[in-house]
Design goal:
Elements: H1 2-10, H2 20-23, H3 40-50, H4 58-72, E1 75-79, H5 82-92, E2 100-104, H6 109-116, E3 121-125, E4 147-150, H7 162-172, E5 175-179, E6 187-188, E7 191-192, E8 199-203, E9 216-220, H8 226-233, H9 239-243, H10 263-274, H11 276-293, H12 295-299, E10 303-304, E11 312-313, E12 319-323, H13 326-338, H14 354-359, H15 367-375, E13 376-379, H16 387-402
Parallel strand pairs: 2-3, 2-4, 4-5, 5-8
Antiparallel strand pairs: 1-9, 6-7, 6-11, 8-9, 10-12, 12-13
Helix pairs in contact: 3-10, 4-10, 5-6, 5-8, 11-16
This protein binds pyridoxal-5'-phosphate (PLP).
Pyridoxal-5'-phosphate binds next to helix 5 and helix 6.
């Protein structure tokens, strides 16, 4: 396996010729490059010296308190991933067999699979044209007697219409769970994403803004759910209460699993949290550089840039463009690859994915989701990306459009 891989890239007589990217003399601009602040090693060393390596140790406590204080949630529990946080959320909210959860189809797999793991049914609703977030005007039509929760996603770290969605949830007595995987350091009407719903789920995966490899957090915004969430996180036991001295031994009291983040990862995460403002500022400046530079292509009607509604403070998690059609998008990906620039499409809509069709329901047509999935292109954006690299991406896009064939 390995030897054929090497042969493929080194044999010039390969009948397909060298990969276009290899023709380019320009250094590669990857789509993402995880950023380490430099303090991670030191903190991991400290964690090892502390001899507390499992979850909720000193670094875990520090990270959780930071989340609680800066975001203003009742409790933050660190998890092994945002997927774990979503799975915890379903247990805490008591989602069970036959229950329905309304969510977008234009999202990551585990927004829906966390629901399916409980024997419940994801009900897919289309997204809005402007933010690519759940279209609140279509949510009510998807609600049935079995609906238990609404699960909106803040795509690209731009808040969805939380007031509108929260009003619907309150009216029908539904739980509101925010998939804020991409939402750290972003706000809706001054409120941090993940803290408006009953529960919020955050990701620290290496592709997100603050990272620890694989990690996440469940934000609990209801006081009466805090203890339940602690039990779910501690494998269904009252161990958290025991450690506080509330009970004299701990035992199995409810459903749960091993959802904790290890102390090694929390030490890494703490280094990131300390530089959260710098990381945010750097990402925002790259985002703005793209946005200004690509304005003329939008004015020329060639592409669409992201739009940020008033009252939303985004976190520059992602910069995307929307092309006219799939052919243009795929062509642009190929042109950028020739310049050694790695740009990416995004979600295959869950309602049309094999498992989404098997486990989910799609009560109405999904024109925006279907179109966006075919036309969206994500551009490289990472903390140490230079201005020259941003410029190179923009020039490559401009040159590509100048040479775009007008007929197929
Ligand atoms: C990244 C992401 C997840 C999953 O996060 P992990 O930490 O990788 O489990 C879930 N939902 C959305 C919208 C995401 O972007």
């Amino acid at each position: 396996m390995q030897s054929t891989e090497i042969a493929k890239t080194t044999t010039p007589t390969d009948r397909t010729g060298p990969h276009p990217a290899m023709r380019s003399a320009l250094p590669k601009i990857p789509f993402n490059r995880p950023y380490a602040t430099g303090n991670e090693f030191g903190y991991i060393g400290e964690a090892i010296e502390n001899l507390h390596l499992s979850g909720n140790g000193p670094f875990g406590e520090r990270c959780a308190s930071w989340l609680e204080q800066t975001l203003g949630c009742q409790r933050a529990l660190l998890t092994s991933s945002c997927t774990s946080a979503l799975e915890m959320a379903m247990l805490v909210a008591g989602i069970g067999p036959g229950d329905e959860v309304v969510m977008p189809s234009f999202t990551f797999v585990t927004t829906a699979s966390s629901v399916v793991m409980r024997g419940a049914v994801p009900v897919f609703v289309d997204v809005r044209e402007d933010t690519l977030n759940l279209d609140e005007s279509q949510v009510e039509a998807a609600i049935s007697e079995r609906t238990r929760a609404i699960l909106p996603v803040h795509y690209a770290g731009v808040g969805c219409d939380l007031d509108g969605i929260a009003a619907i949830a309150a009216h029908y007595g539904l739980t509101l769970i925010e998939d804020a995987a991409q939402g750290i350091s972003a706000f809706y009407e001054g409120r941090p994403l993940g803290t408006v719903g009953d529960l919020g789920c955050v990701s620290f995966h290496e592709t997100k803004n603050l990272i620890c490899g694989e990690g996440g957090a469940l934000l609990i915004n209801r006081t009466d759910w805090v203890q339940r969430a602690e039990v779910v996180q501690e494998k269904g036991t009252d161990r958290a209460d025991f450690l506080r001295g509330g009970v004299d031994r701990y035992t199995w009291i409810d459903l749960g699993s091993s959802f904790l983040m290890s102390e090694i990862k929390a030490a890494f995460l703490w280094a990131q949290i300390e530089l959260a403002q710098e990381i945010l500022a750097r990402r925002l400046s790259i985002w703005r550089a793209y946005h200004e530079r690509l304005a003329s292509l939008e004015q020329a009607g060639l592409l669409r840039r992201p739009s940020i509604p008033v009252g939303r403070e985004h976190n520059a998690h992602m910069y995307y463009i929307l092309c006219a059609d799939r052919r243009t998008r795929d062509w642009l990906i190929a042109r950028l690859a020739e310049s050694n620039i790695h740009a990416l499409f995004h979600y295959v809509p869950l309602h049309s994915a094999p498992a989404g069709r098997r486990f989910g329901q799609t009560p109405a047509a999904m024109p925006v989701t279907d179109r966006v999935s075919e036309t969206l292109l994500r551009l490289p954006l990472w903390v140490q990306m230079s201005e020259a690299e941003v410029e190179r991406v923009c020039v490559a896009i401009e040159e590509a459009y100048e040479s775009f064939p007008t007929s197929p």
